[in-house]
Specification:
- Helices cover 30% and strands 33% of the residues.
- It is an alpha+beta fold and 201 residues long.
- The chain has a ten-stranded antiparallel β-sheet.
- It is elongated and about 100 Å long.
Length: 201
Amino acid sequence: MHWDRLFEDLEGQLAAEWESERAALDAESERLRISRLELRSRLRVLCSAAARATIDLPGGSRIRGRLQALGADWIALVQAEGASSRRSTRIIPLHAVRGLDIDHGLILASLDDEDASDPVLRERMSLGFVLRDLARRRVPVRVIGIDGADLHGTVDRAGADHLDLALHDPGQARVASAVRGFRIIPFSALTSVQAAGDQMP
């Protein structure tokens, strides 16, 4: 009888040690997995959940809305404007994102990259691709620079790392008589691009 109790105690101790060791290994494995997790993977999960977010931008500005789409080097945020709840979409280059305030539950959910399957086609679209489409369609845009510049006009063309903007008043079509000037803007100087009428691809 004495030996039976001794063996039961030993088995209990061994089981507890194994459980403790397995928990430590699981925790270390999870830390290693998270150490390899990229921001894009988390943004993919947050966009698929249409997460409400406040995005910090250069110069201390912040914008609020729902994350809508993720591209190769940009993210789209949908905002409701004013009492009319008119929606507008802002395309924000990832290099301009200084931080995101998001619900804690969604932050934790974004750590789960199990559904990080093959990216959708949109995730291969670069900022240049989106801007070239806006140029092709002659859509008036509002461009915010990292220096706080607030410009209105139409994208005439977009290169690999810059765009040409024909400057004109908001709401006007790009006709020669309305254009006040032209500006070349490197993508690295952009904080966001907003299309009039939200005609984004």
